[in-house]
Amino acid sequence: xxxxxxxxxxxxxxxxxxxxxxxxxxxxxxxxxxxxxxxxxxxxxxxxxxxxxxxxxxxxxxxxxxxxxxxxxxxxxxxxxxxxxxxxxxxxxxxxxxxxxxxxxxxxxxxxxxxxxxxxxxxxxxxxxxxxxxxxxxxxxxxxxxxxxxxxxxxxxxxxxxxxxxxxxxxxxxxxxxxxxxxxxxxxxxxxxxxxxxxxxxxxxxxxxxxxxxxxxxxxxxxxxxxxxxxxxxxxxxxxxxxxxxxxxxxxxxxxxxxxxxxxxxxxxxxxxxxxxxxxxxxxxxxxxxxxxxxxxxxxxxxxxxxxxxxxxxxxxxxxxxxxxxxxxxxxxxxxxxxxxxxxxxxxxxxxxxxxxxxxxxxxxxxxxxxxxxxxxxxxxxxxxxxxxxxxxxxxxxxxxxxx
Length: 404
Fold this sequence. Notes:
Elements: H1 16-25, E1 34-35, E2 44-47, E3 50-53, E4 69-70, H2 73-87, H3 106-114, H4 123-131, H5 133-149, H6 151-155, H7 162-172, H8 179-186, H9 192-197, H10 199-212, H11 217-225, H12 231-246, H13 252-262, H14 269-281, H15 288-296, H16 307-316, H17 318-325, H18 337-341, H19 350-364
Parallel strand pairs: 1-4
Antiparallel strand pairs: 2-3
InterPro entries: DUF1186, SEC_C_motif
Protein name: Sec-c motif
C-alpha cells in the first residue's frame, strides 16, 4: 500500500521517484541536496521552499552543493534507485496525478498563467515552468514579443497577467536576450507601460532590469534621461543601477558620481524625492551636500522622506546602512517568481476569506461591545517606504496617489 496515495501498485517500494519529482520542481536534483533522516524511509510531500515528511517523522532539508550526504544508507540507495527509475521512465503508478506529475505541454502551462478571471494563483503551473525552464524560455520570449507588438490590446484586460509572469520568469532565469524587449515595454508612450504593469512596474521594474541587463548600464541611463519615459520607470532605472552596485557589478564610485551629477538637474519633485530616498537606503554620504541643497530649495517632498532620515543614515554609518540594504528585497534581483506573486491581493485566498468571514461574524455577534478609549502615545513618524500604501487610506501606493 502506498502511504502517499493509499493505493496499491507493483512499484510502491519505488516511491522515491516522487521525491525526485518534487526536488526537480524546485530546480534541484538528487545530487544537490542534503538529507538528514532516520533509517525509516517514508514518502514526502512538497511544500514551497522545503520538503516535509508525509505521516512519518523524518526531517528532509536541501542545500545547494555537489555532494549527496545521507545518514541512511537505505535511503540513499532508495533515492538513487528512484533516479534510475525516473531516467528510464519506470515511474510508479501512484505518482500519476500527484503534485509534480504533469502531462501538460509547455504551451498549455503558459496559457494557464496568462489569464484567469477566477483569480486563482497558478503555483503548480509556475513551479512546473520553472522546472522546465529551457523548454519555457523560447515560448516566454515569443509571448513577450507579442505583448510588445500589441501592447494597447493587452493593456485593456485587467485580468491578463501573462506578461508580468513572463518578465519575472525571464528575469529569474537571467535571460539577457529578453532585455531589449523589456526596455521597449518599459518605454511605451501614452501611459501604456503603467496600464500594462500597474503596481508591478514600481515593484519590479528596477529589479527586472538589474537581473537581465548583463551590466549594460548605458541603456539604463538612457531610460533615466529620456524625457518621454514614465517618471516611475526613471526611478526604477536608477534603482537598477543601485542593485548592480550592491551586487558588485557596478562600482559604487561610478554610481554615486552619476547620482551626484543628476541631483541638481532634476526638476520633477517625485523623481528627486525618490532618488533621495534611494540614496538614503544605500548611504547618502557622497551626495549629502546635493541632498541638503535640494531641501534648502524646498524641492523635496518631506512627507515621503525628511532631512532627518538622511541625517540618521549618516549617523548609522555606511557599513550599517549597506548591511541593511543588501538584505532589502526591494534592492535585490528577481530570484523567486512564485514568492514574489503568491501573496498579491489580486488573487483569491481561501484562508484569508475564511478569516475575514470569522471576524465579520464575530463583529456582528458583538454589536453591543463598547470600545474603551485609549491613550495614543506620541511616536516619531517613520519615513514612508518606496512601495508603501498612501497614508491617506486610498489603498494606492503613495507614489501613485498623494505623492504625484
